[in-house]
Amino acid sequence: MAPEHVDVLIVGAGLSGVGAACRLQERLPGKSFAILEARGAIGGTWDLFRFPGIRSDSDMFTLSYPFRPWRQAQAIADGATILDYVRATAREHGLERKIRFRHRVVGAEWSSADARWSVEVERGDSGETVRMTCGFLFTCTGYYRYDEGHSPELDGADRFGGAIVHPQFWPEDADYEGKRVVVIGSGATAVTMIPVLAERAAHVTMLQRSPSYVIALPAVDPLAGLLGRLLPTRLIYPVVRWKNVLLTLAVYSFSRRRPAAMRRLLRKGLEHRLPAGFDLDTHIRWSQGS
């Protein structure tokens, strides 16, 4: 029996996969396609991650789809809101009937003679392995494995008396009430988790390898709020999006060219937000080389 063939095969039903399918339907409506999703739900990262405080680390005016502008007041949104947004987009564009859940792509080979991909797919619902072919293979799978979060080898971890929890596999019954918590790392996951953990934990420590700096910004974009009273949504979205893109580029460029000046600005921001007389030099180590 010949393998099923589609013009385009999209791997992944997360934010990127849903966006790719919507664009494909819009621009090439005559092309056949299918979406293969290894898990059993739409949403990718935003369905998988359940750790406390999960939210976007980019403003949603930039991260959202141009064809479905972000309409929420918060530019930095929580995970549940983003998941609703992705699923609503898939539903509105009729993508649910195109998604094949529990279909994990495990291999792909290109044939120049046939001008098509041959894709090997493991079906989690039946346990069988099937083959599909396509003219264009569109991988929207992210850059990490859902089922194997990175866990470094830590000497003595086997003798630790407390719980060791990986955020990617956060258990529903995780109890940190009144406990001393150490968060290893200072990336986006740590930054989103720590404020929520601190509300109930006895003490939270961030353990980081390299110095990093964080700027506090309002969750609600003030420009979006202002324009929302003056302009329709279709006009607000591109203005706010490009404002945020250009602001990010400007901050990055300034940090590279004038690191000492940026450090002074960051320090002034901390002085403004922390209690008067707080000893910054003791509690916050400033890298002299940056």
Q: Which whole number gives the mean pLDDT? A: 89
Largest sheet: 6 strands, mixed
Total number of β-strand segments? 8
What is the structural class? alpha/beta
Envelope shape: globular
Strand order of the largest sheet: 3-2-1-6-5-4
How many DSSP H or I helices? 9
Distance between the termini: 62 Å
Report the order of strands and helices: EHEHHHEEEEEHEHHHH
**What amount of the residues lies in strands?**
15-25%
Classify the helix fraction into a percent range. Answer: 25-40%
- What are the segments in which pLDDT stays under 50 over at least 5 consecutive residues? none
User: Rounded to an integer, what's the Rg over CA atoms?
Assistant: 23 Å
Describe this structure in words.
34% of the residues lie in helices and 19% in strands. It is of the alpha/beta class and 290 residues long. It has a 6-stranded mixed sheet. It has a two-stranded parallel ribbon with strand order 7-8. α5 (188-200) links the parallel β7 (180-184) and β8 (203-207). The N and C termini lie far apart (62 Å).
